[in-house]
Design a protein that fits this description.
The complex is a heterodimer of chains A (193) and B (217).
Chain A lengths: L2 H29 L4 H4 L9 H9 L3 H24 L6 E3 L10 E3 H14 L3 E10 L4 E10 L4 H20 L6 E8 L8
Helix pairs in contact in A: 1-4, 5-6
Chain B lengths: L1 H7 L1 H4 L10 H7 L1 H10 L5 H26 L10 H9 L5 H22 L6 E4 L6 E6 H13 L4 E8 L3 E8 L7 H16 L6 E8 L4
Parallel strand pairs in B: 4-5
Antiparallel strand pairs in B: 1-2, 3-4
Classes of the chains: A alpha+beta (193), B alpha+beta (217).
Chain lengths: 193, 217
């Protein structure tokens, strides 16, 4: 859900893509007899008789293949987990100096306060907030649904100068990197809010 | 700097720092930092292709490991004994059509994945100016599209409208039943333009309106 996961997704896609591109390209080049001196004859079989006999004569081949496949599977599962991780903060630590004890606040409490405040603004129908990253320096994902005819400039100023300022004060943070998504909705859906 | 300042007048020349302190929004408009940041934040994350490829790879790795272990123990799990996999491969040649097709398909998929990783992609939201450096604001494109379509439909005489929203251009296609469409296109254009200006996007898109007249009005 974050820029970090985006980098993981893109880096993995590039890596896998390059491997497939190189493998497919090489096979294609051999089949088209592009570099017979390097790649071998185009008319040859994919596997020679000697190659098919190789695993039977060498006991290490199948265990090695199993290990390689297991490593690939583990890496793929790790990649999968890294991409789907929500990275949500559940508890916030409020006291930065640990010698004075630790104050822990559930993240829901903090996000609940800011969404309640936002939904009380005229023109905002719904608001949702999630804190991500580390408990000491969280980032905020804020999403508000605004009536079509609300003045966006006034709302944004209020969100930035009031709601976010209140949250910063409450969490005792100087800055909370925030991504604010503003969605629009027809005004007559108000009763759903 | 001094040349610019003196041209702008004495009041501006008093300010020594490049970029005199102005209102946050107006300032954010001209700076490159917020634009780059916003573009990065709203760039497609490629999570769907990433998760898909990771899942396929994990499944292939697991199946491959099982197959290799069963071959190592010489106890095939499937009806097909592992030795028979080598059979067809001995009778297939590098220049067979099937081999070429598979190789081309693999290379093509690889190319698509590399491009998906490299191409930044169209931003998922239109970035708006923000008064606070730590806040990156945007309107998701889908929401903006629908909102601008509703806006055009509110214009007197417009029946239906659809909008396309990109970072640098907004296209609105509106339908009317009116016989006299004089000024209607301009009305839609100015309504959309005003709304966009009120949103204060980091890139102000150009607005294009196409009006179609539907018979039977």
């Amino acid at each position: 859900m974050t820029r970090h996961t985006a980098r993981i997704s893109r880096a993995g896609l590039i890596l896998i893509g390059l491997i497939l591109l190189a493998g497919g390209g090489t096979a294609l080049a051999r089949g088209l007899d592009a570099f017979p001196a390097v790649l071998g004859r185009a008319g040859a079989a994919l596997l020679s008789h000697a190659q098919t006999r190789y695993p039977a004569g060498h006991a290490w081949v199948w265990p090695a293949a199993a290990a390689a496949a297991a490593v690939i599977a583990l890496l793929a599962l790790w990649w999968l987990a890294a991409q789907t991780r929500a990275n949500t903060v559940r508890r916030l630590s409020l006291e930065p100096d640990r010698t004075h004890g630790v104050t822990v606040l559930p993240a829901d409490a903090a996000t609940g306060v800011i969404t309640d405040e936002l939904e009380s603004y005229p023109g905002i129908q719904r608001a949702s907030a999630t804190l991500q990253g580390s408990p000491a320096a969280p980032r905020l994902q804020l999403s508000v649904t605004v009536e079509d005819h609300a003045d966006p400039a006034i709302l944004r100023t209020r969100i930035e100068a009031e709601a976010l300022a209140h949250l910063r004060t409450a969490l005792e943070l100087d800055t909370i990197p925030t991504v604010l998504r503003i969605r629009f909705s027809p005004a007559h859906h108000r009763h759903l809010a | 700097m001094t040349g610019i300042a003196s041209r702008q007048g004495d009041t501006q020349a008093l300010s020594p720092a490049p970029g005199p302190p102005r209102a946050g929004r107006a300032d954010a408009w001209s700076r490159r930092g917020p634009r780059r940041k916003a573009r990065r934040v709203f760039r497609p994350r490629r999570t769907i292709p990433g998760v898909l490829v990771a899942a396929v790879l994990a499944a292939a790795g697991i199946l491959g490991a099982i197959q290799a272990v069963s071959a190592a123990l010489d106890r095939p799990l499937w009806k097909l004994p592992h030795r028979d996999f080598a059979g067809p491969l001995q009778h297939t040649h590098w220049n067979d059509t099937a081999t070429l097709a598979v190789a081309a398909a693999v290379a093509f998929i690889g190319l698509v994945l590399v491009l998906a990783g490299l191409i930044p992609g169209r931003p998922r939201a239109i970035p708006l100016a923000s008064g606070d450096e730590s806040v990156v604001t945007g309107v998701p494109r889908r929401s903006l599209r629908r909102s601008l379509a509703r806006l055009a439909e509110d214009v007197e005489g417009i029946d239906r409208a659809r909008a396309k929203a990109r970072m640098r251009s907004v296209k609105e296609r509106a339908t009317t039943r009116l016989r006299d469409t004089a000024g209607l296109r301009e009305d839609v254009h100015s309504a959309v333009q005003d709304r966009l200006a009120a949103l204060d996007p980091l890139w102000l898109p150009r607005v294009k309106v196409r009006l179609r007249r539907k018979a039977g009005g």
